[in-house]
Amino acid sequence: MKDYYTPGEVAERFGLTLDTLRYYEKAGLLRRVDRAPSGHRRYRTDDVDLLHLVRCLRDTDMPIARLRDFAELVRDGDHTIPDRLDVLQSHQHHLNTRIAELRERQDTIQHKIDYYLGVLADNPGLAERSAPTGTTSGTASAPEVTAVAATGKENS
User: Gene3D superfamilies from the xrefs (predicted)?
Assistant: First the structure.
């Protein structure tokens, strides 16, 4: 395992731009990074480990201010582990609530899809109408629509 990573290596590893990486530093999500004798920034393994968690939390919509607080707790040492646990459990609760909301919306969309498939199965002439101008026609024939409505699977 390497002792240091270049900004380019870290950015590539986490799918970030160099600008985003610098922003994370300026926002206080990462400690002040070390410099190589040449003056170039370099990240230690613990920076990379924290960035992995920061990226996960940011990708799940944790606000930057909350991320900064969490990063400060990490830098403050092991005595902050109970506080870090509270932050993570609170965020996980938020995610679980959001996932439940998204599942409800997904169910609503699926219900509407099923409804439209049923309408097309009952009215084969609707399925044969051309798509509106400017769209690609993805219409299926009445037997195909009926098969999809009955089985939920398309024939490929």
Answer: 1.10.1660.10
